[in-house]
Amino acid sequence: MKQILFVCLGNICRSPSAEAVFNALIEKNGLDNEISCDSAGTAAYHAGEPADYRMRQFAKKRGYHLTSISRPVNPETDFDRFDYIVGMDTQNVRDLQRMARNENDRKKIYLMTDFASGLRYDSVPDPYYGGDAGFELVLDILEDTCAGLIRKLQS
User: Fold this and answer.
1) pTM of this prediction?
2) N or C terminus: fewer CB in 10 A for the chain?
């Protein structure tokens, strides 16, 4: 089974949304026995908290349910457990690279937009301090990139 970890800064907006979008695609494509995912943050600011209420609202409008509870990345277990560790932006990727214990760990790290198929963005922007449009954009990008990641895993 392929295991995917989605990572952003606080694990309350982008990475739990990626987890929800990806889980919906796993279910839609009947891949429950082949792929699973989780999410985490590079910082523990919100450990133990649910996803941001605004992100949950916007996701719910599209049929996604953000149920994960924020947790920080644990390099001692996450690099062993997951096949792909996917950062939402270049700072997340740099932080993950610093957490990596060795070259094998570093080979598992990707940028979410590496899997883009239609939309062209260099990262998934953090919507936390922005307006409604930022949350919608995050979901637009994640729907595109999660579909691209599913295609990569199936090929």
Assistant:
1) 0.97
2) C
